[in-house]
Amino acid sequence: MARQFRVTDQVFFDIENEDKPIGRIVVGLFGDLAPKAVNNFKVLATKGLKGKSYKGTSFNRIIKRFMIQGGDVVSDDGSGSISIYGEVFDDENLDTQHTNAGFVSMANKGKNTNGCQFIITVKGTPWLDGLHTVVGKVVEGQNIVHVIEHTPTDVDDRPMKRVFIANCGMLPTDPFYVSDDPYDLWGWIKASAVPLTMSFSILGFFHWMISKIDF
User: Where in the numbering of this chain does the PPIase cyclophilin-type domain appear (predicted)?
Assistant: First the structure.
């Protein structure tokens, strides 16, 4: 049975590949389920901590058919850890499952070692369940996540091209719900509202043009 998650806030990441814009990822945050982790995530996506924020940080680990990892505001190579609570902070609500693509979780080095780094899944990853704190889900730009996923990597899963967060911040948000159902029609409509509106406008224009043609 599909589960519903209340999105309390939204963070955007504008992604670039070296010096080429790729697109925007919007993450809906689950502030009710993981308030400490979400608060930490929001601070690092905005004003930052000690001059360090997600802006300018790289996706330093990419594994196809698994996940992309980034958010190391300390060293930008996957070795750093910092949070608004200290170097690390405790896990929260490990009951949330990684049932499909788009779940955003805190990366860690074991129990209660959350810091600044995060992962975004590209498929269901049940082996992460009970081990990683889920902070949210991608509500826009999962296609961009898959573009990052297919960046060439070396034998250590390090991208051979730098893919990084060129800009980030918060978006105004009235709380809403998202589903973990990959066939959630309403979620698809919400994510596609602008393109669909444009498509229908174009179709309407051509329909009007055809109606004016005498056959």
Answer: 12-170
For 149, the token pair is 């996923």
The ranges assigned to domains in the chain are 4-183, 184-215
What is the C-alpha to C-alpha distance for residues 29 and 52, in angstroms, rounded to an integer? 21
Report the CATH fold assignment for 4-183. Cyclophilin (2.40.100)
In angstroms, the CA 83 to CA 104 distance is: 17
* Position 6, amino acid: R
- pLDDT tens for the 215 residues of the chain, in order: 789 999 999 999 999 998 799 999 999 999 999 999 999 999 999 999 999 999 999 999 999 999 999 999 999 999 999 999 999 999 999 999 999 999 999 999 999 999 999 999 999 999 999 999 999 999 999 999 999 999 999 999 999 999 999 999 999 999 999 998 876 655 545 544 444 444 445 445 544 454 444 43
Task: List the one residue out of 79, 61, 77 whose CA is nearest residue 69.
Answer: 61
Residues 129/98, Cβ–Cβ less than 8 Å: yes
> How far apart (Å, rounded) are the C-alpha atoms in residues 176 and 158?
36
* Cα-based angle 70, 76, 82 (whole degrees, multiple of 5): 80
* Cα 9 to Cα 80: distance, rounded to the nearest angstrom: 26
CA nearest neighbour of 62 among 30, 15, 99, 115: 15
Element (H, E) at 139: strand 134-140
Total residue count of the chain as it appears in this document: 215
